Amino acid sequence: MSIRVAVVGATGRMGQLFLRLIEETDGFELHAGLSSRDSLDELLGADLVVDVTVPAVSPGIVEKAVRAGIPVLVGTSGWSEPRLADLRRVVAEVDGPGVLVIPNFSVGSVLATTFATMAARFFDSVEIIETHHPGKVDSPSGTAIRTAELIADARRDLGPVRAPHVDQRARGQQIASVPVHSLRLPGIEARQEVVFGGSGETLSLTHDTTSQAAYEKGILVALAAAPATVGVVVGLDRVLPLRSPAA
């Protein structure tokens, strides 16, 4: 029996990728492909809802699905810790299906973030530079937010990172004490560099996404895991066989 999937944001770049993979993958079938302007009642009857919209509308879509008893796979950026806390309250309130939130479906990106959390305990100065194509509407990226939050979590007993002059606008936006700098440039799909500074040395961890093909393996893993998710689970690392020190 196939899992019927409703994709919200089906007209976007990620939505189109999901539609193709659902069509090509045994065990899944498309229940509905919706734009963010379509009636959310069309979600009803699906076994799984995929949200790949924009940060402004994503929380309403996810809550609608959860209250309808449908598990959700979220691929929309902007799910910072305060938003996740609200989502956890909704899921607990209705004692309903789980929500799997994936800031980045690239396996390489997940590994880079995992390595960054390992390094965070050995350097007191950390900054993130994230670059995306001009069409990305939010900044910082969900990946950068997730990376910064995991770095802070890994340093819980060490304190916040050192970030001088953060009152100056050019120093980026602080996420969990980590300065994050966002670039939006043509010719780039996605790139993130985490730079660590220490006495007499620096360490840079860089991940480049050159095409959407990088997301396919992670999407398939997430689609398989999402229907059985319990509660709110964040990160592809939680459904891959990785051992993250901040997990």
Care to describe what's here?
This protein is an alpha/beta fold. The protein has two domains: 99 residues, NAD(P)-binding Rossmann-like Domain (Rossmann fold), CATH 3.40.50; 105 residues, Dihydrodipicolinate Reductase, domain 2 (2-Layer Sandwich). 29% of the residues lie in helices and 25% in strands. It is built from six helices and eleven strands. The strands form two sheets. A six-stranded parallel sheet has the order 2-1-3-4-5-11, sandwiched between helices. Helix 4 runs parallel beside helix 5. The protein starts with a strand and ends in a 13-residue tail after the last strand. The mean pLDDT is 94.
Helix-strand layout with pairing:
Blueprint lengths: L2 E6 L4 H12 L3 E7 L13 E4 L6 H10 L4 E3 L6 H14 L4 E3 L5 H13 L5 E8 L9 H13 L18 E3 L2 E7 L5 E9 L2 E9 L6 H10 L6 E3 L13
Helix pairs in contact: 2-3, 4-5
